[in-house]
Amino acid sequence: MSRELEWRDGDMPYSTAFGDHFYCQTDGRLECGHVFLDGNGLPARWNGQQNFLIGELGFGTGLNFCETWRQWKQHGEPNSQLHFMSFELYPMRAEEIDRALARWPEIDAERQALVAAWPEEPRGTVTLTLDACTRLSVVCGPAMDGVSQAKASFDAWYLDGFAPSRNADMWSPELMQLLYEKSAPGGTFATYAAAGFVRRNLQTAGFAVERRKGFAGKREMLCGIKQA
After folding, report:
1. 27-225 — its CATH code?
2. Concatenated DSSP letters of 19-73
C-alpha cells in the first residue's frame, strides 16, 4: 500500500499520515465540479483556447484529473491540448487508484485509461499521453520542489492538499507566492479550503481572492485570479 493509506467505509481512502480523507465524503466527483472546475471558470474558459495548463497540488486518487478530462473531452476545442500537471508527495499505486475511483461510473473510461497507463513504481515525473489532446504529468515529491522547477505558465490551479490544519506546508506563504509567480496573467486558482491564513497567504502572494459558497454544506471556499 502507499504511504500510510487506509480504507474506510469500504472503498474510501484515508491518509493516516495527515488524518484526512482524500476527497469529500458526500461526493468527491461533484465536489470537483463545484470547487475546482466552476471555481476556475471551467469549462467556459476553454472556449477559443488551443492550449490550457492546469496545475494541481495533491494528485491523490486522480479524481480531479479524471473528472476534468471527462469534461475536457465534452467541452474543449477540437484538436486543442490539455496539459494537467499535478504535484504529489505520496503517489498511489494503480490498484489503489482503481479501487478509489470505481464508485463513479461517470468516469469509468478515464479511470480505466489512467490505471492502464500508470507505472508500477511511480517516481520522479510520471508523464502520460492519454489521448491526442490530453497529457498528464504527476511530479512526485514535495510540492515546493516540484513547482519551483516547473518551466510553465499555469492557466488554473486546483489547490487540493489535505486540510490546512493537518498539512500546513501545502498552504505556506512561500508556496502560495510560487504559485502566483508561475501563473499566467489572468490565471486562476480554486480551493475547498477557507481558513483565514490560507486566504491571507494567497492575497499576500498577489491573488485577488473571492469567497464563495462551499460544497455540500461547507460554508465557504476560495477562488481568485492573478490580475492581467
Report:
1. 3.40.50.150
2. TEESS-TTTHHHHIIIIIIHHTTTTGGGTT-SEEEEEEE--TTSHHHHHHHHHHH
Residue 94, classified by CB atoms within 10 Å of its CB into exposed (0-12), middle (13-18) or buried (19+), is middle
User: In this structure, are residues 35 and 215 in contact, taking their beta carbons and an 8 Å threshold?
Assistant: yes
Q: Domain residues of the chain, as ranges?
A: 27-225
Report the sign of the C-alpha dihedral through residues 14, 20, 25, 29, in that order. Answer: negative
Whether 215 contacts 26, CB under 8 Å: yes
What gap in Å lies between CA 167 and CA 48, rounded to an integer?
37
Instruction: Give tens-digit pLDDT for 126-147.
Output: 999 999 999 999 999 999 999 9
C-alpha angle 156-127-116 in degrees, rounded to nearest 5: 110
Mean pLDDT of 94-123: 96
Closest CA to 226 of 154, 166, 172: 154
164-195, pLDDT tens digit by residue?
777 788 999 999 999 999 999 999 999 999 99
**Residue 75 grid cell:** 467541452
